[in-house]
Task: structure prediction
Amino acid sequence: MVQPSEAVTLLVTLMALPIVVSALRRIGMSTGRRLFVAAFCCVIAGQIFTILEGFAYPDLFNLLEHYSYSAAGIVFATSVLLQTGSKIGSAR
Amino acid sequence: MNQALVIAGTITAAAFVAAAISLLAYIPRKWGGSSAPMLILAAAFMLEAFIGFSNVLQYAGVTGALDLFEDFAEILFAPLVVFSLFATEVQLRLREQERASRVVQSEHDMLLSIVDTTPSGILIVAPGGHITFANEAARSMLGVAEDEGTGRLTAEAWEMTDESGAASSLGELLDAPEATGLKRAIVFPDGKRSALIFSVTTMGDHSSELGGAVVAVERAL
Result:
């Protein structure tokens, strides 16, 4: 069973993905850009698993959902550290 | 199963908090712009950290009260990320424009300084014979001044003659494009005489906006 809020959330995030990719390219964020996009994709994966757990294998998809968000957090943190680390390094 | 979910929630919360703190630790002072885009992105990360924290509380059996707010937090994440990236891009573009504008202004000031301090007179004469620009040396040699009423540049009512003594004018010089070393004599209204050498270069063609000619003036020895 699909919750309306889950479907809308996934739709909004999917629409945001190409915008995020093109914006990162125009900003000229080279260091950590791919990681940032990968982390965003992990968030999308988590939202997909949220919807799938309503149809089959609820425990498995629930677990995958939460670890997708965990992976997203780790990859976002790495991406930000790489980007800010390079800027701070150049500032010094 | 619940233990695995608590671990996942803890990792999520900790990782997103770390991302937010890393972002806030780098405030773009160098950029000279505001840190609003970074704050917006950090807020997006904190929303995800909140979701992780809510899941920890839920699966650890503490409380499920925060579960209601998870949907709102999830739906806000993507728009906040997009908005922060766009705000960053706008800041960068504005900064580039300001930098380019400063460079152009600096070059303009330098060129103006060169034109104004050169000992040779430089005039720009429009197709009709009107003076549209005159540097300091040209204003001194030809008695050019700005009319207080109209703001237009006008020369004193001198009379110009060529080498043969025939009457001449600035407008006539435009009929001799790319000419150099044109000797002319000028008699000012107060009787003062001045021998000058003119060199003319056309500026664009007469149909273009610029039109007219650049005239260089030197005092004849």
Observations:
- Confidence is low (pLDDT under 50) at residues 88-92 of chain A.
- The interface with chain B takes residues 3, 5-6, 8-9, 12-13, 15-16, 19-20, 23-24, 26-28, 40, 43, 47, 59, 62-63, 66-67, 69-70, 72-74, 76-77, 79-81, 84, 87-88, 91 of chain A (CB under 8 Å).
